[in-house]
Amino acid sequence: MQLTVNGEPRSFQGPPNVAALVAELGLDARKVAVERNLEIVPKSAYAATAIADGDRIEIVHFIGGG
Questions:
Q1: In DSSP terms, which residues pair with 61 in a beta bridge?
Q2: Checking DSSP bridges between strand 56-61 and strand 32-36, what pairing results, if any?
Q3: Using an 8 Å Cβ cutoff, are 60 and 29 in contact?
């Protein structure tokens, strides 16, 4: 499966949904925001939001600090 993640073309074995992609990338789902094809995916919908070949994914990682 070919996806564009944060502007870079990447190949995956086929994460079926946003939750699986976030896990495969080694990210903490509680600390990221995900946009799929220009639409923000609510955290509550990560497991229910399917990913298809050619999708454009943008992921923002939140970092705490002060």
A1: 32
A2: antiparallel
A3: no
- Does residue 66 lie within any of the structural domains? no
Number of helices (H) and strands (E), helices first, in the chain?
1, 5
Q: What is the pTM of this model?
A: 0.89
Model confidence at 45, pLDDT cuts 50, 70, 90, reads very high
Number of other residues whose CB lies within 10 A of the CB of residue 18: 26
CATH number for the domain that contains residue 48: 3.10.20.30
Domains of the chain: total: 1
Boundaries of domain holding 20? 2-61
Q: According to DSSP H, which parts of 1-66 are helical?
A: 18-24
Token pair for 36? 């799929």
